[in-house]
Design goal:
The chain is of the alpha/beta class. The protein is 38% helix and 24% strand.
């Protein structure tokens, strides 16, 4: 099978864990054997989240006041290179040397009229207590939202419309390359106003699950997996009646209610892929990636 695996930013950097280079590399190293095992039987395409990482870069950029902070699109491009480098290296250390890997810096088109620009929902950066978040909102003009019992910065997350590098991605797959692309949802890019073909970056972060679903469709993937830090989608999450969903259809999955900043986009992405292709999507823990592909773990979404 051709499988797209979208690695959650919180799977590569555990929730609340200090955002050090060593921690990120250690998490990738722990995940690498399971991902490498898939390559023995399947064609693997990897995407990844970047919410914690791009938020940290934004904090670092804002701390240096001699120049204007870099915009989110440039920070997103930085994370594509940084995370792709670590993934390539750690996967290469456990895969046969003849298997080639490549990371593609990926731009993704968004619309300037997307309503997301007026309703930021995408979490980036570390978590804070309420008092610290309120102080940073005043000092930096950032918007914060609740993430569990903590607070995180939220930014616009426009709909992905087109992957500009889809042709070289397809070409690499035809050559048997394990491709890492659409990192962090890709770099948000739009055409400049006034017509023409002039591209410009956008101060936003595209949801990596929706961008990865678009990628999965564009490369005719057989399966789309969203690997995160929870073992499944749950109905009634956080209540005494919470229950893991194992095998569901898109219609059944859409019947639930899921947070817009976390599980909601994953559910929507899974439903879109299954409805558009008739293939299989899954959501589950990165530590169970082999079982998820086999269909014995996670939330399995199929036409039914």
């Amino acid at each position: 099978m051709r499988i797209v695996v979208a690695l959650g930013g919180n799977a590569l950097l555990k929730r609340g864990q200090p955002m050090t280079a060593d921690n990120q590399r250690g998490n990738v190293r722990a995940a690498a054997p399971g991902l490498a095992a898939l390559v023995r039987a399947h064609q693997l395409v990897l995407s990844h989240g970047n919410g914690p990482q791009v938020g940290l870069l934004a904090l670092q950029a804002a701390a240096y006041t001699d120049v204007e902070p870099f915009p989110l699109d440039m920070l997103g491009a930085q994370t594509e290179g940084m995370i792709g480098y670590v993934l390539e290296q750690e996967l290469g250390n456990v895969m046969p040397p003849e298997v080639p890997l490549a990371t593609i810096l990926t731009m993704v088109e968004v619309s300037p009229s997307d309503p997301a620009f007026g309703n930021p929902t995408k979490f980036v950066g570390p978590v804070y207590d309420r008092a610290t978040a309120d102080a940073m909102a005043v000092a930096k003009g950032w918007v914060f939202g609740p993430d569990g019992d903590r607070w995180r910065r939220v930014v616009p997350s426009p709909e992905p419309l087109r992957i500009f590098e889809i042709r070289p991605i397809r070409w690499l797959l035809d050559q048997g390359v394990v491709v890492i692309c659409a990192g962090g949802g890709g770099v948000p890019t739009m055409f400049a106003s006034g017509g023409g073909n002039t591209l410009q970056g956008v101060e936003a972060v595209i949801d990596k699950d929706l961008a990865s679903e678009l990628l999965a469709r564009e490369i005719d993937a057989d399966m789309f997996v969203m690997a995160t830090d929870v073992d499944a989608v749950y109905s009634g999450w956080g209540t005494p009646r919470q229950q893991a969903l194992t095998k569901v259809t898109p219609t059944e999955l859409r019947g639930g209610s899921y947070p817009a900043g976390s599980m909601g986009p994953k559910v929507e992405a899974a439903c879109r892929f299954v409805e558009a292709t008739g293939g299989r999507a899954a959501i589950g823990a990165l530590t169970e990636i082999t079982e998820i592909v086999e269909g014995t773990a996670g939330t399995q979404v199929s036409p039914g």
